[in-house]
Amino acid sequence: MPETYGLTVPFKSGVDYIITSKFGTRTDPVYSGSAFHSGIDLSAPSGTEIVASANGVVKETGYNANELGNYVYIEHVINGVTYYTAYGHMLDDSIVVKEGEPVTSKQKIGIIGSTGKSTGIHLHFSVMTPNLSFDKENLKDPLSIVKKDLDSKAKK
Ligand SMILES: [Zn+2]
């Protein structure tokens, strides 16, 4: 059983999405050379809602032109372990949650977009533990979370 940390894919069930870029070292899509990709990129139709991966509290929302564009960070405590999830490139003015706000799993937080350092509509999704930090030692590969979801869809 792959480790999903108690987290789920940040889309509602029934959304058709594909993995467009995996976690880890890759050729940078915008600049040349190799770079470490801090999460997984999921492409879904424009207008797709982005939802909380698990119950938690919104830690931060903001805009970063050079990286995640419009982003949300959520803090989760799952079986006594603190995780942070990051959601990037959201559509302008689509974020519907505020810092400090509790959220439940699959609650809408925004809409997919292509803001920040992005070459097309997609969600950048990162998982961190135990600190909210994009340092390699805090980052987890979200692929197992996505695979579990895709596998369960394939069985239907
Ligand atoms: Zn990405």
CATH topology: Glucose Permease (Domain IIA)
State Rg. Answer: 14 Å
Reported for the largest beta sheet, the result is: 8 strands, antiparallel
The SS-based structural class is mainly beta
Fold and architecture overview:
- With 156 residues, the protein is mainly beta.
- It has one domain (18-154): Glucose Permease (Domain IIA) (Distorted Sandwich), CATH 2.70.70.
- The protein contains one helix and twelve strands; from the N terminus they run ββββββββββββα.
- It has one helix at 143-154; strands at residues 18-21, 24-27, 34-37, 40-43, 49-51, 56-64, 69-78, 81-90, 102-103, 108-111, 123-128, 139-140.
- Strands 1, 4, 6, 7, 8, 9, 11 and 12 form an eight-stranded antiparallel β-sheet that branches. Strands 2-3 form a two-stranded antiparallel sheet. A two-stranded antiparallel sheet has the order 5-10.
- The radius of gyration is 14 Å and the shape is globular.
- The mean pLDDT is 94.
- The site of zinc ion has 5 residues, from loops.
List keywords for this structure.
single chain, mainly beta, eight-stranded antiparallel sheet, Glucose Permease (Domain IIA), binds zinc ion, 156 residues
